[in-house]
Amino acid sequence: MENYRKQIGYLLQYLENEFGITSLEHVKVMHIKQYLMLKQNVGNKPNYINDLLKVYKTMFRYFYNEGYTKTLITEKIHNIKKEKIIIRTFTKENVKAMINFYNKNIKNGALYHI
């Protein structure tokens, strides 16, 4: 809960300092996007930024459901794409070498069961 409160506080502080916004009705999609881009530009990872967005979406959904806002602005903001992690696999040559090694050791009786 404390972390959740801090992340909301950082956004509210940013909105007030950068745009003079102190009222929900004045928050626009571009304000939240700019805050998230700022976080990205200072080196935060996509996972962290997407976690922030999840917090803000939850907050704005609550405000919308309770009637504090007329629109759900965070629905127009999408998660940042994460880098794809490429796992290096064996090459055909690696597989052939392993099979050959296994076959030679079976024929020579060198492999044993543990």
Q: Descriptors for this entry?
A:
single chain; 114 residues; mainly alpha; 4 helices
Q: In words, what does this structure look like?
A:
This protein has helices at residues 2-19, 29-41, 46-65, 92-107. The protein is mostly helical and 114 residues long. It starts with a helix and ends in a 7-residue tail after the last helix.
List the helices and strands and how they pair.
Blueprint: H1 2-19, H2 29-41, H3 46-65, H4 92-107
What is the mean predicted local confidence, pLDDT? 87
Count of DSSP helices? 4
Range of strand content: under 5%
Q: What can be said about the biggest beta sheet?
A: none
- Estimate the helix proportion, in percent: 55-70%
DSSP strand tally: 0
Helix-strand pattern, N to C? HHHH
Query: Are there runs of 5+ residues with pLDDT below 50, and where?
Result: none
| Distance between the first and last residues' Cα | 51 Å
Q: What structural class do helix, strand and pairing data support?
A: mainly alpha
Q: From the alpha carbons, calculate the radius of gyration and give it in angstroms.
A: 26 Å
Shape: rod-shaped
What can be said about this structure in brief?
With 114 residues, the chain is mainly α.
